[in-house]
Amino acid sequence: MSEFAGKTVLVTGGSTGIGNAAARLFLAAGARVIVTGTRATAADYAGSDGDLDGIEYHCLDQGDMAAVAAFDPDIDSLDVLVIAGAKVAYRRAEFQPDIFADVLATNLTGPMQLAMKFRPHLAAAKGNIIFIGSVASFRGTIGQPAYSASKGGLLTLTRSLAQALGGEGIRVNLVAPGLVRSKMTAITWQHPDRLAATERQVPLGRIGEPDDIARPILFLASDAARYVTGTSLVIDGGLSA
User: Is 129 domain-assigned?
Assistant: First the structure.
């Protein structure tokens, strides 16, 4: 992965979880790495499941159109844009129209706005976009209609942008994780009974770790995937097989 030396990578939602794992791998491969999160400063993530040492941090609510429009990470070109920021609401809250709209703003509208904002920077570098979808991109989830709708939307957005931006040399792909250990999924893995029930359904016998998703992200961003665009890569330990 030495090919990332000297390149610029932006990971939204890169302060924790899958985004942070990907950011750390890009950093180790020599890239300049910029991440966003929702807390005021990088110091506010001390003790969380992320490591921001050596990474440039910006506070950004990617569901806020005005904030995305004003976001300026001081770059001339961009080699990789990983859009990992997302939200979900539990306890059937997503059936409320205002919460449904809020989740879609972060998980779908914001990613589209970010892709268009950095389109010129990506074109200058012949770069690529990687969206973080979900196995919910392919099926419904009974309690999270907004999350499923937004992740399904990301799947077709990936395919649409791959067609629209290919002529500019920009590749667009999506990774679709199953259950991965992160703060968003703590409602499952922090409860032994729920975790055990889930892992019994996974052919590989365990839920995913952030690094299990981060490494395929680096593959899709690399020259090894230079002819890969408009595709989705399911990474769920065989759960959906």
Answer: yes
